[in-house]
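Supplementary Methods S3. Complex input for the adenosine monophosphate-bound model.
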Amino acid sequence: MIDLRRHNSNFCVEHFLRFCRDQVERTIAEFEMFSKTDRLLVAVSGGKDSLAIWDLLLETGYRVDGLYVGLGIGEYSESSGVYARSFASSRSATLIEVDLPGEYGYDIPGGAKAARRAPCSACGLTKRHLFDAAAVDGGYDALVTGHNLDDEAAVLFGNTMKWQTEYLARQAPVLEARAGFPRKAKPLVRLSEREMAAYCILRGIDYIVDECPMAAGNRHLGYKEVLNDLEARSPGAKADFYFNFLRSAARHFTISDTGDAAGLGHCERCGAPASGEVCAFCRLVERAGGSQPVRLSSTRRGSAA
Ligand code: AMP
Ligand code: FES
Ligand code: ZN
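Predicted complex, serialized as structure tokens:
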């Protein structure tokens, strides 16, 4: 039996798996994320959430390849890659791999230090850039990530604590494609971290249980703890916080012109959308002591509008 307090119910295995599939299908339909004819790319970290959403999408008949980025975080990255590869081969699915040290000449621990950035900030910038480039260059209709309810509620909590209105305006389960950026979707927003761990165990999916060693003590994890305390006192609080924001508050925040792709040019090094001559990612590569790989062609110059 799986006990879900916020839904006030107990599930047997079969019903729990069906519940997860239904929640994902409902989210995809409600937010008009994508359809069964679309080609999807799911970013997989080797963790429970991204492997679970890859499995759920394959199971429900979507056309979906995987993307794994090796970030060079020692043993942690090595094992995550093994889990991602082994899932892909067990499902005969295609996995695209990008190896940051091999292709860009830096890893997250060393690169962040050299660039004087917090590891998670260098990591976030790197991942966003590589995910976008892989999705646009591969001609995918949407980029899918494994962000779950706990992730989204914690990000919302952080953005609200600081009233970061520009970020609040972008915090939606689906973002449309804009010039040089792919459509982005988070179909797990109705499911929690705990539910995703249970899903993987019940489906026999092996995943990396350890958290990233660079993330220990970061603010985001602190927000998750606060929300878990609230959830323990009143089950459903997390979902209420997030979905009531989407329903009642999100529309009051708008993306300003400065943050909009319409006002962006192209990075002279990699072709990605950029507000200056060189994009933030290429500046990071340079400061981290790496170099850009030679690209034969890039479709990022405004092709995904
Ligand atoms: P995180 O930023 O670690 O919370 O991860 C959020 C989502 O980003 C995950 O659910 C994955 O979809 C994706 N992701 C994180 N790390 C990687 C990685 N190394 N390679 C590919 N996708 C990743
Ligand atoms: Fe990026 Fe940990 S996964 S710093
Ligand atoms: Zn660039």
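The radius of gyration is 19 Å. The chain has twelve helices and ten strands.
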